[in-house]
Amino acid sequence: SVLDRPPEGFDLELSTLFYCDQDRFRYARPAEPVDVHSGVICAPDNFDYAQPADLCLVRVSCLANYARWAAMPPEEYRRAKQSWYAAMAAAACRFVPDFRPHVIDADVFTPATIYRYTGHEEGAIYGSPRKCYDGRTGLQNLYLCGTDQGLVGVVGALTSGIAMANRHVLWPGMIEEPG
């Protein structure tokens, strides 16, 4: 969502918030095109940048179902993007100050959008479609860490770095290699 003012102008002071409105977070492909029961709300203008951004933004990300989006005819797809944007914004506004009165433009992308422009299987966002679980690259002493190992997000990238350091630097030979 592109806003007509910075987020702090309506008391949105956080930069990132992870939310879940259920007792248990479910990291799985939703049956519906979007699962608004959990998500990430980001107000990048609230980061401590040396220079303020040109646009004032609030981003909401939720789990989505590639197959549902990919199967939609074009007109249904356009309508669904609008209705799911409204549902995602409403869900987000249960956890942060209501930014909707300040929205001057909105852009929605789906797993189908990601697939169209990146070729990532089923519109995956994180990492390479081919995972490298043991970190090997084929070059001696060069190991890959990050979301390309099958872990997601910032925490997944950090965890993979720890796992690769343990596996290949601190405790080499302690983990049985495949094959």
Q: Compute the gyration radius: what is it?
A: 19 Å
Main sheet properties: 3 strands, antiparallel
Helix amount:
25-40%
Number of strands: 6
The arrangement of helices and strands along the chain is EEEEEHHEHH
Number of helices: 4
Low-pLDDT regions: none
Structural class: alpha+beta
- Strand portion: 15-25%
* Order of adjacent strands in the largest pleated sheet: 4-1-6
The geometry reads as: globular
Distance between the termini: 49 Å
Arithmetic mean pLDDT: 88
Give an overview of the whole structure:
The protein is an alpha+beta fold. Strands 4-1-6 form a 3-stranded antiparallel sheet, with no helix packed on it. A 3-stranded antiparallel sheet has the order 2-3-5. The termini are far apart. The model has no long low-confidence stretch (mean pLDDT 88). The chain has 4 helices and 6 strands, in the order E-E-E-E-E-H-H-E-H-H.
Topology diagram in text:
Blueprint: E1 2-3, E2 16-20, E3 34-42, E4 56-57, E5 59-64, H1 66-70, H2 74-92, E6 103-105, H3 111-118, H4 153-170
Antiparallel strand pairs: 1-4, 1-6, 2-3, 3-5
Features:
179 residues; three-stranded antiparallel β-sheet; alpha+beta; 4 helices
Please summarize what this structure is:
The protein is of the alpha+beta class. The protein has helices spanning 66-70, 74-92, 111-118, 153-170; strands spanning 2-3, 16-20, 34-42, 56-57, 59-64, 103-105.
